[in-house]
Amino acid sequence: MGNPSVGRRASGWLATILVTGALVGCMGSEPSKPLVVAFGENPVALDPQFQDRNTAWSVLSSFYDPLVSFTPELKLEPALARSWEQVDATHWRFELRTGVTFAGGGTLTADDVVASFERARNHPRSAVRHYVTGIREVRAVTEQTVEVETSGPAPDLLERLTFLLVIPRRAAGHDEIEQPDGTGPYRFLGRLGDGTVVARARAGWRPRPEIAEVRFVFCGTDAEAARRLVAGEVDVSHLLPDDLVGEIAGVPNLRVVEQPRLAVQLLSIHPEAAEGSTRRALADPRVRRALLLALDRQRWVDRLFRGRGVVASQYVHPAVLGFDPGLVPEPTDRAEARRLIAEAGFSEGFDVDLRYSPTHSEVVAAIVGDLAHVNVRVTAYPSGTSPAAGISGKDRLGLVYFAWACSTGDGSDFLNSLVRSRNETLGVGEDSDSYFVDRELDTLLSAADTEVDRDARLRLLQAAQRRVLRSLPLLPLTIRGGSKGVSSRVEVVTRYDERECVAAFRWRRD
Q: What is the CATH architecture of 264-480?
């Protein structure tokens, strides 16, 4: 990723803080004070099976462990399972570490693991059920051995199990877990009135973390988290707003750390949500390719993202299984875009509505401007507002701007969710559109779902991506880099999954 620009002058609350000298004495190396990590979101639920948000995973990974976990580079490594083997096509056996204890007392056994699976699969409020789909049975073979039986070959099972946090069996019957009790590196001390979560380091199956006390605070917006960082109230601001990166990089006792991000920004195309000529235009693959050619994505990276990003050549990040290094981004070519639109029968262009999150208004403004060059007239609506005309009651419009991260590190996460034909029995195609049906693509993905040889599976996922790119039901746009703000007190570890795994952080020594 490129280096952040530092050319802008401080303004607003940042300028006020700098002028009044509020930073003086705030950032000395004081390991006796707790580490404070700020997120630009509202407080998260603390039940490890009721959420599937990145911020919640950051918090809960301090208290709980899975059987298998990811390294910062998304490589699998042992966690509560010291080893595992695939007995046959549908049976996996996990050997648990011995002597692992829960923060609230008691030693980890296979029964705790079984209870965790059952709660994730069956609790009506489970938000992690999709990670354990296709599992037929989980049983305790011995006190330290767990066997997982799947309904068919499950080549991505280990990756999905990184999201199954193990709770003690005694907590499995709770309607909601509000006080985390896990095997993780920190003990839950309590929750303050504003939602702040307080944690204390503990010695468990890992050594005790260097940072003894941590506070996770929730600021509502990334800008507010950044303000608190500059004011000396927090040590880590999880994700800085792009327009503040340059200013914060110049603040004494603060550092900007580049944060890799898995998400690919996308523009999905929904003919079924449009009417008349717009519906016909969006259904034509020539028009969809023209839309991609009209977008000056490199200009977005250079100007809007301050160089922290790249133009996407495909639907998955380079760290994800299924990435195809042989693919290159489509260049901007508005002359060809206009030719394709005219060839499809829309020489006068057409009107289309676009849905987006208000936090992405700058990029959406660029999309609107770029498509105007090829006579595609876009009216953009932030989420939660109603278009003046359109399909009543649907949040989808003809175009939707959003991002998708393959959090399991596997390309099937995207492909099975967004482009495979819907099949409720198999649990695939939940977010796909009825207009895009490609039986050959479905065959490729079905084969990938059962292919246990990693190299062969990689080739199947790459072939599936190439096939989708021919029709372009979604346009791959960019991969945005991120930045976190960090005080001089601490050294952080960045991860592709963006989690703040504070057990790996260290106090900074001059």
A: Roll (3.10)
